[in-house]
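not sure who needs this but someone in the group chat was asking about GST N-terminal domain-containing protein from Planktotalea frisia so here u go. i didnt clean anything up, its just raw.
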Amino acid sequence: MSDPTFEVIFHAYPQSPVAEKVRVAFGIKGLAWRKVEIPRLPPKPMLTALTGGYRRTPVMQIGADIYCDSQCIILELERRFPSPTFMPTSDQGLMWCLSRWTDGALFDQTVRHILGAAGDQLDKDFAADRGRLYLGEDWAAALKQANADLPHLVSQVRAPLSWLNTQMSDGRAFLLGPQPAAIDAQFYHVVWFLRGRWADGPSFLSEFKDLVRWEANVQGIGHGTCSDMDPQDAILRAKSLEPTSETGVAPHDPQGLSVGQPVTVQPDVNGGEQPVAGTLRYADAETVVIERSAEDVGNLCVHFPRSGYRINLL
């Protein structure tokens, strides 16, 4: 990792549960990485300069390639650092399918649960930002409803935790057996969020003895080796290098994409977020990469997952 071209730079803030998922992934790989701490709330000018407007946490940077969304980050980590693997069994396809639920519906359910439990105690600016992001345009009414529905929301989270507890009841160390996998990190960030951000989280989780044992095993993995980096240094790193993403579009693309097309990419939800504009460089079933240039950051490739993101042709 001494070559700056290949150094992993991680843009996140400590309280982010999705960032914790990736930090555990770093630990599974035993990686050394650089930490750029970003604000919890917009504006995030140093981050969005690199992403072209994408404001979600976390973002990974390797040289002049920028990886948005933990799904895309974990894919790229496995490609670049294949050993130890995130996929220690032959169930890779099932794990990725399951991760779309852990990172999607299950996480969204947990966000509503935690926001609803906090109620009026939430910081107003934080409530407005995250409420709009996760609850939609009428977020204030949805937040009140979440508070009223809290017992129901707790029951909806309790069921999958019971399933996880059953999975661990044979004494295994991790969800798939003796070796940690990406799916451990993808479930763990929900448990970490519940324990740390809900006042009743520790007592609620104590019901699940085998799950708590698994939680301790995941904590024991650690986060790899981290050192701080100034955000301006990260921008200068990007500006001094050229992106290395491959070029092309895989066959059978449903949108008929082609290299060089002007496009925008954004999360496929009504979160009020700014689309990222650029020209298409690469696309397959899992990933889309767009090129963009700006005077302050140089030439960049911004990588997104296909699942959960919308590509609009301009």
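also The chain has a mean pLDDT of 96. if thats useful
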